[in-house]
Fold each of these.
Amino acid sequence: MDYNKITDAIFNGDIANIPQLVKEAISEGIPPEDILEKGLIEGMSLVGVKFKANEIFVPEVLIAAKAMHAGMDILEPMLVESGVQPKATVAVGTVKGDLHDIGKNLVVMMLKGAGFKVIDLGIDVAPDVFLKRAGKEKISLICMSSLITTSMPSMKATIDLFKEKGLNEKIKIIIGGAPVTQEYADLIGADGYADDASSAVDKVKELLNLK
Ligand code: B1M
């Protein structure tokens, strides 16, 4: 399989052809994780590089993101298949002021695939929304995602709110996203940091003492 075909299709926002290309890769026996990492995510990284260099602009990025979602829709059932009793309930959301959802969706997918019940809170999630949902459902851990530096303070605000309500012992909070680091996690008092979606699963298991 030539991963470049998928990478190019993401970069060019070729929404019509992405599902077929992903299905072809699956039929060639390529593991879905490889299709995701070496095809879809690679394409999106290229989009990021060109966006930063002002060589492409928001409309192109949006179309590429739609193509990415079209590819992820095909892979999701394969990454998620588990059918076992949920290990624990985890909530995932992109924090207030931030509309990026691709990385957050990957975290959701990987956690589901690892057998967790996942409550996807979506994007632009305010601290009190995390709090309300944590009160309603039996959430053991929250994963917060931030892709822009301006939304990072909302991670701290959420952690502060959980501490203020005395929930920080009961509900762990971990953070991730491109501008976020372990140092930032330490600084704002998060229980953990994960560099990518599969490390997020490892961190969740570690913090909840699950295998
Ligand atoms: Co935006 N954007 N964007 N954007 N965008 C970035 C993030 C940016 C780095 C581009 C750049 O300048 N190089 C830049 C941020 C700069 C900064 O803050 N320092 C930026 C900007 C500036 C903006 C706008 C302000 C642009 C504007 O309007 N002028 C605007 C902000 C809107 C808002 O949120 N309020 C904006 C808008 C958009 C679109 C809507 C056009 C679109 C989002 C579409 C969507 O998500 N549905 C978009 C996109 C697509 C990007 C880039 C190109 C790609 C992001 C992405 O999906 N990457 C991005 C550049 C880049 O990152 N290279 C960029 C692929 C994804 C798989 O990676 O999300 O990092 P990522 O997730 C990774 C890890 O970070 C980790 O796991 C994933 C991998 O497994 N992870 C977690 C993520 N969340 C986690 C949570 C965890 C654990 C791990 O929990 C524990």
Amino acid sequence: MAKRDTSFICQSCGAAYTRWQGKCEACGAWNTLAEEVAVVASVPAAQRSGRKGRSVALETLQGTATPAPRMVCGIGELDRVAGGGFVPGSVLLIGGDPGIGKSTLLVQASAALAASGQRVIYVSGEEAVDQVRLRAQRLGLEQAPVSLAAETNAENIIATLSGGPPVHMVVIDSIQTMWSDSVESAPGTVTQVRTSAQLLVRYAKQTGACVILVGHVTKDGQIAGPRVVEHMVDAVFSFEGDGGHQFRILRAQKNRFGPTDEIGVFEMTGRGLSEVANPSELFLSNRDAGAPGTAVFAGMEGTRPVLVEIQALVAPSSLGTPRRAVVGWDPNRLSMVLAVLDARCGVRLGGHDVYLNVAGGLRIGEPAADLAVAAALVSSLTGAPLPADAVYFGEASLTGAVRQVAQAAARLKEAAKLGFARAVLPSGGLDGVDAQVSLQSVGSLAELVAAIAACAPRRPAMRDSRGGGEREQRPRAVEHTEWADDEAG
Ligand code: TYD
Ligand code: MG
């Protein structure tokens, strides 16, 4: 016997409650509970039939079957993020802001795969078939043998896929529009999204087709719908970028079949997304070389070195609590670098607003950026521009020492390739590395600060923020440091 059961389900994490409440106890989100009706069997099916379950044959880790090869679509940046092509039978979730280019990327990938002889089905739950065709025309891909459908019912989709020759790839755009007959709640609710995703995951595992789900992103950047969808799929990619820039970054957040630190860089053009093979050139294209407060960081994104400009602005604050604004880096990491500069190097920034920006909209997660951030901060504070032909990398420890970071050789090689002549880096760890740039090793942040301050204009003409007029002196914040006057020569 089945009974109708009303429950309140958090639309953010999927937790269920019997009564409405303002806050979800499970994930802490406010106003996310929505009423959903589910038909549940009052006695679990297994109990009703008195079935005990059957034992399954156990296998060894060593298998004899060779897995199907990965499907390479030919869009290099996408294949690399996927771990060298799509794995048959896997399910991928791609999330991103509206209008970022998810549908464009997937139409391009579908067309490329279909052109290589795979059977690809593109199911749009958001757009009519004509709209998908229009996009394909704009991309010049209307000749590609992709099969289209505009459908939102998961059972209908699976029935369609199950008939006919085997399917290699299915794109579901988007999972939030899907609904299943087996649950009664409205389309878009957690229960519907979860059930539809479950059906599609089961389809992928049973048939060996690769299923790509498009997921919407909420205001705070989470993939909307239950987090459980993220747990159900094999890989979660996010497609990022900001309105002011033409380029987009595909980043793997989870990948059961590949690395999670690779990024794919694309540029949105009038004819769809084009791959950016050398992101460093792109990120450094509009550099303000020679301006104080900018440092070039030689970073790594997965296996690929990426050079980006770090910009800092340090200005006297008129606020009781000075502002710290960061774009593209971890604000906690900035606080740490500021604290180390203060405690170990005597650089006092307590009375200054600090703004930090990673140029070009890239988001850096590496602690190796500490040295470049510190250099940009001190450069902005002292008004001393950093050498335009230098790159920086190294991790700062709380003691003020600069630590070695991984893959120094790859970073140096990329710097040399882009015409940089020197690198400021932690000492040691470079045995056998044939560096084509001159190396300037620093053991501590204090050494770095001293080197930058030595190049600062002796008497910088500083505009006093309070009095107006020119102030003929060093910036106050570095006046009291031990090295300020005696070591500078
Ligand atoms: P779309 O793929 O529809 O985004 P999503 O599916 O993530 O919501 O991309 C829409 C944006 O991309 C839209 O603002 C127009 C732009 N665009 C181009 O600039 N060039 C193109 O060739 C295409 C197809 C779209
Ligand atoms: Mg779309």
Amino acid sequence: MPKLHLITYGCQMNEYDSERVAGLLGDERYELTESPDDADLILLNTCAIREKAEEKVFSRLGQLKSLKRERPKVLIGVMGCMAQLWKGKIQERAPHVDLVFGSAAVARVGEMVARARATGAAVIETGEAPLIKLTARPERPGQLKAFVTVMEGCEKFCTFCVVPVTRGRERSHPPAAIIAEIRDLAAAGVREVTLLGQTVNAYGRDLTPPTDLADLLEQINEIDGVDRIRFTTSNPYNLTSRLMQAIRDVPKVVEYLHLPLQSGSDRVLERMNRGYTRARYLELVDELVGTVPGIALSTDLIVGFPGESGADFEETVTAVERVRYDNVFAFRYSRRPGTPAADMADQVPDETKAQRNTRLLEVAERVGAERRRALEGRVMPVLVDGRSRKDPGEVTGRTRCNRVVNFDAHGRELLGRTVPVLVTRALPHSLRGELAGAGAGERVLAAAAV
Ligand code: SAM
């Protein structure tokens, strides 16, 4: 059987696409291999969101050059966002690449690989294609969690972002196709699904008849076997009271929301074309916290966006302190080709970006640690999803709010089960817990939102 070595960079959507590619090529009798050395086909599923992500890919392609020289029959392909952004230019820097294709062409991966092999000529497929719900995936016995893409593309046109170029306009998959996919996953043992979309809370408005994410969540809630539903990424611009109520009322939807703020300064938000102000974002957060008690929030922030002054940056810091996020993903602004911000005159020096990034992470870490410490002494439902590598008696799982908890299973087989756990200690990146005994049920219910 021919062997496929698949390397995935970037977001969860890329992980999802990689699973589809592995499944489709599995149908063509390719089997996955961990090592590039015995592979017949090496595919890099790439990310173009920041320059650093691209450099990683080019450096990996550089490493693969000697392998291609030694074994010229190995096919090397670049797929995903860099393929879509750079198209045939990829080969200017890496002439040993045989195959370049964007996410719209994933459905035809088998045919493209066969063509590259048969002709020996480079295949480049980066055009648009009709939206297809691909569900092929490799067998993953024991898989408890899965991503499910519910919509593709983005048309917000934030001035820093390449996604509208790399992933095209917003298109939602029909609910019936999503439900069918999740039913299959549940039948295969999956207990938690994460719905994916660049602006997932804009789901459904392009469909005929139009629908929305709240409605989709209610439908997924009815699927037997699924215990938890997550979704990401939400855009504040599309966040509705109806969705907040769904997070509160649909039992399997967890009390956790990733809501990118990007900047705490109105001046910067406007130049980013985010479509909301700091006050509007904070108003949404207050409504969320009022509607869904105990909800945990995380966010994305960019430091050093063109023109960001020290005072603008301080507004981002105070926003973190005000919202009290569980988790903050901070990024240094990276100039992306073809985006309006790349041409803005007042670019911020790298050194300033680095200083701001460090300071922001310090503040975010302090706030996050305070949030974690507040959980000590509480009992929470934990979905057990793995065994500790260090101690086979220990298991690891997540609370509904996505916090990692490690605890002793006392010899019980808990994988895939949701059990009450008493949090005994908050550590820097996780919680320590103890399996809570009988009688913990009431406290579990009270703590279900944590
Ligand atoms: N679609 C989502 C949104 O707009 O909120 C997020 C998608 S993006 C894949 C993930 C994060 O990368 C963004 O939220 C943003 O913080 C960051 N990002 C995007 N473009 C960037 C750039 N040019 N430089 C630095 N960070 C960037």
Amino acid sequence: MTDSRSIQTVLVANRGEIAMRVIRTCQELGLRTVAVYSTPDRLAPHVRLADEAYAIGPAAASESYLDMEVLLDVAARSGADAVHPGYGFLSENADFADACADADLAFIGPPPRAIRAMGDKTAARTLMQEAGVPMAPGTPNAVEHVETAAQKAEEIGYPVLIKAAAGGGGKGMRIVRDPENFARAMEMAQSEAKNAFGDGRVFVEKYIDQPRHIEFQILADAHGNTVHLFERECSIQRRHQKVIEEAPSSILTPEKREEMGQAAVAAAEACGYVNAGTVEFLVDADLNFYFMEMNTRLQVEHPVTEAITGIDLVAEQIRVANGEPLGYTQDDLTIDGHSVECRVYAENPAENFLPDPGPLLRHAAPSGVGVRVDAGVEEGGEVLIHYDPMISKLITWGSDRDHAIRRMQRALSEYEIAGMHTTIPFCQFAMQHDAFCSGQFSTHFVDEHFDPAALHPSDATFDLYAALAAVAEAHTRSQKTDAKPMATPSSNGRPWRRRRRHVQ
Ligand code: MV4
């Protein structure tokens, strides 16, 4: 691709922290950035960070961030020559990738046919089986008749898992431990899948007990080069959503890492993958690994990979979309230290992680050596009910796992948030738990180990007093330049106490 054809202006078709993440790298590469915003996002930080911003519609995502026509119109009006979709919204929509190509825009993501191949779960399973990627024993395709499926379950051996072909988020999933429960479980899975996805097809797999979720980051250029950037361990989840991730996984040996990395590269090559992607595996206690799915986008947890490899994944995505070859081979890549990410959501961990959106009265993020914070909301802003309630991602790096965890404990204790409950106390709980610290955990960590009673009940109160005191003092100072500092920063006469630290 000649220089005159190369990307110069990027439309960032997203909001929040990921829009800011993409804009920042564009700026470093000397590219012009165009943001888009829904009505309630008009003052959002991603809007101010971009060179230009365009209104795209009301709060409802279906009428703004998901409206392809409006986005393509903004691309035309702004003179953008590329689109970065971020994650969520249109990031894994092959029709949108096609529409971008038709409008002569570079889609900073994989080719539409790779998105389609991996979007259909049963088609992806067949493709992966052909490519020799290990899969849990099971029916590669959907099974229609209960008798046939029950027969397959016998062959696979109990316990089995019935999964929705249209899949995702654990919906339509049923564990079956005994043959006598199979028929009923299958009917329930089918009706749940029909309700959730409008597609009642299911398939049957060997159930992996106590698995870990380990995913490999891959990167492929348009010249036939594919590498992996090692793995991320994402087993700490609630309601099938990740809360804590780390890189590398503490259970993989160098040999297993190489074997899984090669399988991930084979998976990417089998679907003609170009750009950044992630191959997810389930890993059992004996380190057997099984393909789960491939995510054809940049992921929320990509910063832990950036921390241990030193590679800016968004910059790589843009270079690859520009037709440039990867500047390194697998042998050039090494793991440096360890990284942990805690997702800070506006949710109450004591109330089964119930979302708690609203105004963010106080937001003072930690900083210092080895700490990265990617936030999408700022103090004085609001966590909107219309979108994902994530406030920020807190990422630490350390020379080894223990170092990264201690930094995370320090950073969490430094974080001041008021106006809402957050997942910070849960993350503090995990960072001091024996199961997490020793690396002996599975995707069942929350169910098996989390005790909401172990959270410090006073945290939210302390944070609120601290916040109100800080806001009041800032206000006083803005009114009177000769204002005396308060005797204590607490407005209620109680001495200041920082967020309690959970350290062994
Ligand atoms: C499994 C499994 C055990 N055995 N498949 C959950 C969501 C879906 N995408 C795949 N999931 C699982 N598939 C077999 N054969 C256990 C899970 C699972 C899980 C996987 C990853 C992260 C968190 C999880 C929580 C519960 C169950």
